[in-house]
Amino acid sequence: MLEKIRQVGAKGRLASALVLLVMLPAMFYSVYEFTTLTRSEALIADVYRQQLDVVLFSLNQYAWDVASSWTNAINDDLTSSTTSKKSLPSLLVPFLDQNAGIRCLFLTDRSIADARVFYPRGTNAQEYITVNEIAASLKPRTEAIDRLFKLQAAGYRKIDPFFIKDKAGETSLALVFVSGSEGGTNRILGVVIDAETFIRDILARKMEEAAGNNFLLSVNRKNSTQVIFATGAISQDEPRQTKDLWLFPDYTIGIRLRGQTIDEVVRTRFYRNLVLIGLLNVVLVLGVWMVYRTARHEIELAQMKSDFVSNVSHEIKTPLALIRMFGETLQLKRVRSQAKKQEYYDTIVQETERLTRLINNILNFSRIEAGKKEYRFEQVDINDVVRDVLKNYSAHLRNEGFALSTRIEDLLPAIDADKGALAEALLNIIDNSVKYSREKKFINIRTGHERTIVYVEIEDRGIGIDPRQQKKIFEKFYRVSGGLVHDAKGTGLGLTLVKHIVDAHKGTITLQSELGKGSTFRLSFQIHSNEQV
After folding, report:
1. For a surface tag, which of 127, 246, 436, 485 has the fewest beta carbons within 10 Å of its beta carbon?
2. pTM value?
């Protein structure tokens, strides 16, 4: 039990060491790759934000410069109207016709009581924006208008954005400032801008320049998928970053890379790395499992070798002790009865044979391990092998109290075999049956043939073998776990030698066993090619 606990502890320490040395670094690296994606996403968002801020500032500054140039031109026209004697329509309408993006101009006094509106020729703006709409939009902003007049009086002309709602409910931007006009009287002047025309006809050139060959810029109406303008073919994907246009808050400008975006590149790389990491982890798991299995097998093998040395020592000491004890007794002539002497002689012979078999097993196993085991094949009648084995072993079976039953089929076809090796295989199986049978001491040996094979079966009614351990019993040094196993000594080599002998004869060995009811081993061999079935 203590040895079992030590084995379990060694395997547990081995498994823990493998996990710590191999699996934990792989797991940490996998987690690191996952967290890297989040950091990369944040970095990409920051790059886009900075780039968009630069582009947006440039576009808005350009839009403001254009609007400012308009207001300056209009202010100059109004100032010159008093000296040139030209009417306002003759000055302003041509200006409107030449500058796309302006829906109309309006001129009114400080009280917003007297307003005039000028429209470009050939537009329908007058149907949507009239004096009433302009007055309704300006009157709530009286404080802002008063501030514009105060700044003008101080010598500073400021342009303020106002929003005019037309009859259709659409909102247009109006750039409002105070300008001198007829008779030198300061008046309110407003430039109502058509946002979409302004974006397509004026901002477009600047957007193309800002986008270059690397970026794709697009302007959308808020809460709508409608694209007002884009510097290239745009898919349905949302831009990576968006912000409101200063002059046109109902519109947003978005930015992304042309072709594959940075985040798409990062995600592609991430998923590729993820797949590689997954494959690496699978390989590592398989490698760890193989190393663990190999190491576990070596630990078990080392333990079995230790048990083997202990068992061999016991197996050798027991017959030697009996031989020495009976030999000394006979030497000292303490036995008077001839029958008793014969019993002692028989015991010495049996223990000598037992010791011989043990030594032969060890020597044969050593030759097999070294690859030097040789067999002398000849035509053999398997019945002769069985009879020879029983002739030499039946006395031992009787002494052990076993009932022996045989069913030998006559005239079996010959097989190519090493007679001595087959006898050794049969003796090892019979010896196992003797060791692991306690209550029901019975052995049945049968021979027969089926089609192209002949077979020999050895049946006992011993302790049987657990189905989970039946595949392992032919491994070297392996001994079945069980209470009786600890009482019955052995080297763990017998069935290993049997398997090697059968394999060398190109035969098969099968086992039928049930716990508590016994086991049946069948050794099958191909019939000699010249024999007829």
Report:
1. 127
2. 0.45
